[in-house]
Design brief:
By secondary structure, the chain is α+β, with helices and mostly antiparallel strands. The chain has one domain. The chain is about 30% helix and about 15% strand. The chain contains three helices and two strands. The chain has a two-stranded antiparallel ribbon. The longest helix has 10 residues. The termini are far apart.
Length: about 80
């Protein structure tokens, strides 16, 4: 098993280590998916089906939706 680490910036952003990018065949502009289950997170390359699902449920998510929310959370 290979372990790779990265540090969070003040904006909670992290660089995906080269070993992970290579293993997932990630390139600039690719979408990634975070699967959360039982306290564990799985990172994987998002596929068209993932993106289609996300777009399909976007309208049902009321957590952030107003222009004021967009302004407040733009830099996250």
């Amino acid at each position: 098993m290979t372990t790779a680490t990265s540090r969070l910036t003040s904006k909670y952003q992290a660089t995906i280590p080269g070993a992970v990018r290579k293993a997932l065949d990630l390139h600039a502009g690719d979408a990634i998916s975070f699967e959360i289950e039982d306290g564990e997170i799985r990172l994987r390359k998002a596929h068209p089906l993932d993106l289609a699902f996300t777009h399909a449920v976007e309208e049902t998510l009321s957590e952030r939706g107003s222009d004021a929310d967009e302004e407040a959370y733009r830099e996250l």
